[in-house]
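User: Could you check the structure of this?
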Amino acid sequence: MRLLLTEDDPQLGRATQIGLEQNGYAVDWVLSAEHALTAARLHDYGCILLDIGLPGQDGMQALHLLRDSGYTGAVLMVTARDQVPDRIAGLDAGADDFLVKPFDLDELAARIRSACRRAAGRVREQLVHDDLVIDVADRLVTKAGRQVALTIKEFRILLMMVEQAGRVLSREQLEKNLYSWGDEVESNAVQVHIHHLRKKLGRDLIRTVHAIGYCIDKPAAP
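Assistant: Sure, the predicted structure tokens are below.
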């Protein structure tokens, strides 16, 4: 999943970006609410982390504008002040959760998963597709009861395709889920990841749709 981090403290922002990348996310980082709003118009983010206390336009104002513009993904507000009125105002404006600084990176990752799960309408951190089981929290995949080792990017592609089973996803859509700003992307990177997934999970799982992209079909009705 690709995330947008809004944090004006360079040290905290970089540390948070690194920590989230180690948790398997592609992370774009901006320093202001204005830049966050621009990025959200240009890219498709599964979750946006908004610091309330930003210079200029604050995070609460940005949250109102994000929701008014039609953004339906998860929004997690990060704040240095744990005040009930702030939390109430943020939740009423469309925030999915709040986290108070200083925070633990593992807790942040868990709250992101929870907020994204609710935004996607899922009730569990586990996806099942025929004999394939994906544990989102622990990034584990089993097929027919056998654990299959995947790289972070292979896992991200598989998760995105299973979540949108039946929909054809283009190479560009998959790349946007895998890479953040500044990452070098090989022209055949997605094809290589798809090739490895087919070797590990079976060639029939991922279908190529000529000149369009790739698709994991919905499971057959019982």
